[in-house]
Write a structure and sequence with these properties.
By secondary structure, the protein is α/β, with parallel strands linked by helices. The protein contains eight helices and eleven strands.
């Protein structure tokens, strides 16, 4: 899952980003509305966590722009203005959800996951392929009933491949979906993660390399 945090309070933005990354999400950060719009035009984010009072371009305008140009992106408006009329106004601008500050981080995580599911309505909450069963919300993977521990990026790569439902996913797509904007596009991190993932999943192998194209579940 790829998330954009648009928040001008630098420490708060980095705290949220760090917490979401610990949940296995790929997170980018923008500290003003202009940056947020520019990033959203380049990357297809699953969820935008949007502070309403952004500098340069107001959060309301960011919300309208992203809703018009990226209708598939779930928008969670995060703001200190929590009165009922503020919530109604935020939702009327195109936000999908509204969370007043201060907030509990566990609630933020739950809402981000809920918005991601809503943006992909055809995707089941638990992914299955053969004897594999992956539960993203609980970060739990089992194979033939045996639980397998994966690192965050390994889990996210497997989730992306299982969600593709047999379609081939390129290394570039995996970089965009699983890693953030600071990752070197020429890195071999995808190939190395696939190798480790295969070892942990064991035999028979279920992640197939499509030479010159990418990877898919076999």
């Amino acid at each position: 899952m790829r998330v954009l945090i648009a928040e001008d309070e630098v420490r708060l933005a980095e705290t949220i980003a760090r917490g979401l990354r610990r949940q296995g999400l790929a997170v980018d950060v923008a500290h003003d509305g202009e940056q947020a719009i520019a990033k959203a035009r380049v990357v297809r984010y699953d969820v935008l966590v949007l502070d309403r009072e952004l500098p340069v371009v107001h959060g309301d305008d960011v919300c309208r722009t992203v809703r018009d140009e990226r209708p598939e992106t779930g928008i969670l408006m995060l703001t200190a203005a929590g009165a009922l009329e503020d919530v109604i106004e935020g939702l009327s601008l195109g936000a999908d959800d509204y969370l007043p500050k201060p907030f509990r981080f566990a609630e933020l995580v739950a809402r981000v996951h809920a918005l991601a599911r809503r943006s992909s309505p055809s995707r089941p909450p638990v992914l299955r392929h053969g004897d594999l069963e992956l539960d993203p919300a609980r970060r739990r993977l089992t194979r033939a009933g045996r639980e397998i521990e994966l690192a965050r990026k390994e889990f996210a790569v497997l989730e992306a491949l299982m969600a593709a439902d047999g379609a081939t996913v390129s290394a570039e797509q995996l970089l965009e979906r699983v890693w953030d904007e600071h990752t070197d596009p020429f890195t071999n991190v995808v190939r190395m993660t696939i190798m480790t993932l295969r070892r942990k999943l064991g035999e028979p192998q279920v992640v197939q390399t499509v030479i010159g194209v990418g990877y898919r579940m076999s």
